[in-house]
What does this fold into?
Amino acid sequence: MQQCTVNRRTIGRGAPVCLMGVINCSPESFYPGSYVPAGRVHAEAVRMVENGAEIIDIGARSTAPAAPPLSRTEEVQRMGAALRELDGSGITVSVDTMQPCVLAVCLNHDIHAVNDISGLVDAEFAKLLAASGLPAFLMASKQVPGDATSLQETFSCLALVVSRCEEAGITNYVLDPGIGLWTAARNTALDWELCRHFEEFARFDRPLLAAVSRKTFLGEITRKPPEQRLAASLALTATLLSKGADVVRTHDVAETRDVIRVHEQMERCR
It folds into this structure.
């Protein structure tokens, strides 16, 4: 497996599992409890780092299908306000955006990685990312984020992402299979299928990101809202760790850190 390096932290090829904490600067988020308003971003990031997060992923817009539209100007303003709180903090920061104009603003701040759920579908975005030299987390997407509707299409989308990286000259990246209800054409059965076959995504010889925290398919099986999906999230995270997840993206850092510690202890005992 090829490794990825984020701010000197090695990911993949036997390195310890990397924990990514989520900070949503979007009140429209599907999980209202994850919203962090301006002025509290630094304190929340410090709390997450103290609880074990190695990367803080900052997002300024909701990507849920039913989320209200957000202008690029508003996303730029939200992202800029959040990043100003973290500049000079020494915290490893990833920015969750797929808009070139937003990324351009982010590059003026202390950031260390880019999380693009569109998988480099925008050539201008890919060019900016390549020029920055920053590592990336890239999700399986063909034309819009998460538009694969089967396991085989997910493999095809990830192959497409890899080819986009090759074309742009991007070599330092992690792949994300894109678990979640990203489009109206998808269903929760596919999410379970992706999880069951998670280890097969290793065919691309890249570190893998598991991002299942409090998502809809967990609520469907437990019949609980996002606020009550912690136990389900942790249970599935443990399964995906056993299937080769190299990075875990979560709203619940302290609890997920414990899951990773238990997993790593079990692996050492083998």
